[in-house]
Amino acid sequence: MGNFCVDERGGITLFDFDEAQYSWFVEDIALQLYYLVYVYGGEDGQAYREDQARRFMKHFMRGYLLEHALDDEWLGRIPLFLRLRELIVYIGSFRSWDGDETFGSSDNQWFKDWIAESKARIENGIPIVNIWT
């Protein structure tokens, strides 16, 4: 509900400034990668996420490098920015649940599974995918 406004004539303007920030170029890449793969969980989730990440990065970087050079050292930092994004999304979930760490009132099993997997990754310093090692 916060991503639009209605003017006095009834015109609607859509906007979304959640990700509008000045940051490193690799964070821009990590954001797109995170939101592509975070939906896959469960026992097969890791392998599926990494397969999707490899496919995404192959095609994304082909286009990206036409506009901006990025050396391997920076690409190697993407896992750090994936961890940052997961932490931000995890913390953001509490905003919707008034700090209820059990999320007990949710009837969304996918969400409960995601939050448990996310918490484990955060606590263990593991990025959602790491195809650079």
The gist of it:
By secondary structure, this protein is mainly alpha-helical. Helix content is 56%, strand content 5%.
Task: Please describe what this structure looks like.
This protein has 133 residues and is mainly alpha-helical. Helix 1 crosses helix 4. The radius of gyration is 17 Å and the shape is globular. The model has no long low-confidence stretch (mean pLDDT 88). The chain has helices spanning 25-37, 45-67, 72-75, 78-96, 109-124, and strands at residues 4-6, 12-14. It has a two-stranded antiparallel sheet with strand order 1-2.
How do the helices and strands line up, and which of them pair or pack?
Blueprint: E1 4-6, E2 12-14, H1 25-37, H2 45-67, H3 72-75, H4 78-96, H5 109-124
Antiparallel strand pairs: 1-2
Number of helices: 5
Number of domains: 1
Q: SSE order, as H and E?
A: EEHHHHH
Low-pLDDT runs: none
Largest sheet: 2 strands, antiparallel
Give the neighbour order of strands across the main sheet: 1-2
Helix content: 55-70%
Distance between the termini: 40 Å
CA radius of gyration? 17 Å
Q: Which structural category do the helix and sheet elements fall into? A: mainly alpha
Number of strands: 2
The gross shape turns out to be: globular
Give the integer mean of the pLDDT values: 88
The proportion of residues in beta strands is: under 5%
